[in-house]
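Lecture notes, unit on binding sites. The following record was shown on slide 14. It pairs a sequence with zinc ion.
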Amino acid sequence: MASIDPYATLGVSKAATADEIKSAYRKLARQYHPDVNPDNPDAEEKFKEVSEAYAILSDPEKRARYDQFGTADEQFGAGGPGPDFFRDGGFGDLFEAFFGGAQQARRPSPTMEGDDVQASVVVELIDVLHGAEKEVKYRRSAKCDTCDGKGTADGSAPKQCDTCQGTGGVTQVRQTFIGAVRTTTTCPKCRGEAYLVENPCATCGGDGLVTKSEELTVKVPAGVETGQSLRVAGRGSDGVRGGRPGDLYVVMHVAEDKRFERRGPDLAMKYDMTFAQAALGDQIVTDGLDESIEFEIRTGTQPGEMIKIKGCGLPTLRSSQRGDLFVQLNLAVPKKTGEAEAALLREYAEVRGERIPEPKEGFLGGLFKGKKKK
Ligand SMILES: [Zn+2]
Ligand SMILES: [Zn+2]
């Protein structure tokens, strides 16, 4: 890290006075301080660089060493073991020295936020039309009743980890040929949790949480589609030691329907018409999704033709206006015909001047014949 040019980092010239350096640092430190830029690793990195540069240039001995050797590292030059900036205090202290102690890096806390939990619910097509109340069963981590969520057997509060001083991380400074390198790793003693439970509760093993089955009634809005989820705030797992609970996400699964196919807000169904209906036309009243629908089979309708019935589909999440219902007209051909029917059909063909069908003997006759051949 000493490979940075402290003059360039602070934006000052090699001839800058102590006051100029100080004022340049103040400006940049204010800009990049972690308290001003929470969860911004770039700013944090920049803040470290700025602080490191200032640590070099504000110390006449280190500055002289840098000017001479291009590094402030003590192994270069004759400088004695001066106070190490990283070991005593760190950036926070330097910052406080400038701006007063009010600002501090984030304070470690024994609480932890609860996890979000996912559950699923099956919804019928009619529920998509009207919306519905559904019972959802799921499992979550809930506060342990034995220890009241504290995790300790005797009710005492968990102790701050002494290895990491409650930060959850351990920082090591290694001197390398490019200078001091800081690495932070998860604290091995508390596994990053910052707190230790020395006398764990027998029920929850010290977590303060136990797995619990839950039932909850949720309001499924009209228009939902498979895969969409409903967030129920605060109904996920409980937080640790009073931390905020997570949320419950209920994932919708719209059940297959035997009669209807769905495409967004539109529905499609099939209607079997007879040859007589297709040829002569007909007025139809039949069941839609929620109420009866009426449509006309026009004279001479061909098999597969589609009829659109407006407003008999489904609403969407955004609009209560319903999509359309498409009815596909199939031609239902009788699988069996009696003698009278067959005679009429032959007569019909004759009247129309069509070829008169000449079927083989009946189904049983054909079967018999087939066997005889063998
Ligand atoms: Zn620790
Ligand atoms: Zn417990």
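Take-home: DSSP finds nine helices and 15 strands in the chain.
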